[in-house]
Amino acid sequence: MKMFLIALLIGASLAAASIAMAGVPIDSAYWRHEEGTPGANVAAGPDSVLDSSGNDNHMETFNPAFTAATYTSTVSPLALTSGLSNTLSLDFGPGGDDGGLNDDNFTTAAKPISGTLFSAITVEVAFKMDNVSGYQAIMGKDGRPLNGPFPAEPDSPVPPFKVLIRGDDFPGGVPSQLFIEWIDGDGDIHFLAGGETITTANWNHIAVTISGTEAALWVATESTHYQLVDMLSGDFAGPSGEVIIEEPLGWSIGRGAFNNNPADWADALIDEARISNVVLPRSHFLFVTVPEPSSLFLAAVGVAGLLTRRRRVIDC
After folding, report:
1. How far apart are CA 183 and CA 186, in angstroms?
2. Helix, strand, or coil (residue 310)
3. Which letter does DSSP use for residue 40 in this model?
4. What average pLDDT does the structure give for the chain?
5. Which end of the chain is more exposed for a tag (fewer CB within 10 A), N or C?
């Protein structure tokens, strides 16, 4: 009975979130990678990778001579929840511009999203690895904000946010797993982990949600629905309610950052990527997944599996 009541509350909260978001613009940025043609590289110049949210958070590449990803018609096999067509993704990594593992797109510090303080956030991205070797970041936010003012972490090379495929077997002895690392508004470092080895066989569709008190990682493959794979509870809000530490530098796709430098370039196909300024319910995530059992049943199973895994981690 207790599990049923918990599941009922989760279902009710998701329904309430859907009602609250009706008619409200929630996308802070949405990079669809639909602006190119198959086989072409990302173009030179500012605003070459378009933000379809209408918020002017267009991206660019550092130097198209060697950091330009290549447009491809290979995309996720899942349909978009919005009903929009999906015809292109970007291939980051060797090939196209040159043979190096050095492709990236990013927003400049002048773009609105670079300085946005999120009181809640959902970060979504779909990707398929071309190679799983070493540390590879799918997307992230640049900077090194922990270099003095925060007593809990006065000096750390960790960036504000990163979606990473780890090059080791931390945590839990699982090699090459999905790893979400971020610094909350108070300057504390946290992580969420996928718990399974990422391979080159499937598309992965992820959603990271962070509120002032809860963070969650949802993952769907080509043949499974979005599953809650890790969750944290705690106090993630900073002085202004921000759940990711203030850092005026840009967001990136195709790499992350470490010690205030670009790092961890990806060898992967990266499809749709979106940042929303709310915690989206699962029914609002980017992709339509396979048919699934009752949402209440799944919520109960998810809660049961996570009751023993709730934790608050300061550092990794």
Report:
1. 8
2. coil
3. P
4. 87
5. N
Q: What stretches of the chain adopt beta strand conformation (E)? A: 27-31, 70-72, 89-92, 105-106, 121-129, 136-141, 161-165, 177-183, 189-197, 204-210, 214-220, 227-233, 251-253, 256-258, 261-263, 268-276
Radius of gyration of the chain (CA): 19
- State the Cα–Cα distance between residues 187 and 313, nearest whole angstrom: 12
Q: What is the DSSP letter of 80?
A: B
- Quick one: which of 63, 111, 68, 109 has its CA closest to 90? 68
Nearest to 160 by CA among 103, 128, 121: 121
User: Is it the case that residue 2 has pLDDT exceeding 50?
Assistant: no
- The rounded distance, in Å, linking the Cα atoms of 284 and 209 is 12
Residue bearing tokens 């956030």: 121
pLDDT digits (tens, 9 = 90+) for 32-50: 999 999 999 999 999 999 9
List pLDDT tens digits, range 278-307: 999 999 999 999 766 554 444 444 544 444
Q: Mention every residue, 6+ apart, whose C-beta is less than 8 A from residue 12.
A: none
Residue 312 above 60 pLDDT? no
Residue 151 has a CB neighbour count (10 Å cut-off) of 7
Average the pLDDT over each of 103-112, 159-168, 288-297 and give the range with the smallest value: 288-297
Residue in 32, 12, 28, 8 with CA at minimum distance from that of residue 20: 12
Q: Are 205 and 220 in contact (CB under 8 A)?
A: yes
